[in-house]
Write a structure and sequence with these properties.
This protein is mainly alpha-helical. The chain is about 60% helix and about 5% strand. A hairpin with a 2-residue loop joins strand 1 and strand 2. The radius of gyration is 30 Å and the shape is elongated.
Length: about 300
């Protein structure tokens, strides 16, 4: 007696996740159409994607940049760090001198050791003074004035530039003021963040022109501060002018270069231009500090 064929249909293969073959699933990636298990699902607006398609999509998305090429920031951390540093250093000045009043009279060991003094830089090879002088202040009023100016101007400039360009602008502007003081008034001791702040003022003016903003306020601020610089005794005009010139130059580089419209240029090309110009100008300032005093004798 012959056997009759089975009347039950052949069962179809159960679909499994392409990354986890032991897991059954009936959900497919919206883009590549492969089966994906719950661990591999990434929800989007109209369904699910697999992890590979999500990663591929992220690589194709261009990172957001500011109008001048920096990374978009959420908080002005460099500005806050600089404010914290100058306050902490002033607290150390008060401790070492014994009183805020003694700081104002110049009886402060930290100023003697770290203030910007051109002769000590050139004759004593104390090159750190080119930067440390900008963290010291000559009294509470001096600290409050510079701290308030940084608090008002710094966050906006940092949002325009991003963290790295803003930090570079601050440091190079400080260096520009210190180098001019070294060349013109090497025997004068100076302290304060005014050189770096004037650099920010100069950059704000350039950025305002580039963005077609009303620059009358910053022009008035610059005019008032320059009048104070030259009319009030005891203020280092070299730090202010050197910082202002450095801020104008770097601000112009960040705002207008590379040629052809910096806002349309590719981010990497623009970053290379800005880095090269920043480093080149810094090298020029350091060379002036090293060679200038001998040429001026």
């Amino acid at each position: 007696m012959s056997a009759s064929p089975s009347s039950e249909p052949t069962s179809q293969a159960v679909p499994v996740c392409y990354r986890h073959p032991g897991r059954e699933t009936y959900v497919r990636c919206r883009l590549c159409d492969r089966y994906i298990c719950p661990d591999c699902m990434r929800e989007d607006a109209v369904g699910f994607q697999c992890v590979e398609c999500v990663a591929r999509g992220r690589r194709s998305v261009r990172e957001a940049r500011t109008v001048f090429g920096g990374k978009v920031i959420t908080r002005p951390y460099v500005t806050w760090t600089l404010l914290g540093l100058i306050v902490a250093v002033f607290a150390a000045q008060v401790v070492t001198s014994g009183s805020p009043m003694l700081v104002a009279t110049g009886a402060d060991p930290l100023v003697t050791w770290f203030g910007m003094w051109g002769d000590a830089v050139v004759l004593g090879d104390q090159w750190y003074r080119l930067f440390t002088g900008g963290l010291l202040h000559g009294g509470v009023i001096h600290l409050l004035f510079n701290g308030f100016a940084l608090y008002v101007v710094g966050p906006q400039v940092e949002r325009w530039l991003g963290h790295l360009r803003f930090a570079a602008l601050w440091l190079v502007s400080e260096l520009g003021g210190a180098v001019l003081g070294l060349l013109v008034e090497p025997g004068t001791m100076s302290v304060g963040a005014s050189g770096a702040l004037f650099g920010l003022f100069g950059a704000v003016f350039v950025f305002g022109r580039r963005l077609k903003l009303d620059t009358r306020f910053i022009l008035g601020l610059l005019a008032a501060n320059l009048l104070i610089t030259f009319l009030v005794p005891g203020i280092s005009w070299t730090a202010h002018i050197g910082g202002l010139v450095s801020g104008l130059l770097l601000g112009a580089a960040y705002a207008y270069l590379p040629p052809g419209g910096s806002t349309e240029a590719k981010p990497r090309r623009r970053a290379l231009w800005h880095a090269a110009l920043t480093l080149g100008y810094t090298a020029l300032l350091l060379a002036a500090a090293a060679v200038g005093p001998a040429l001026l004798l």
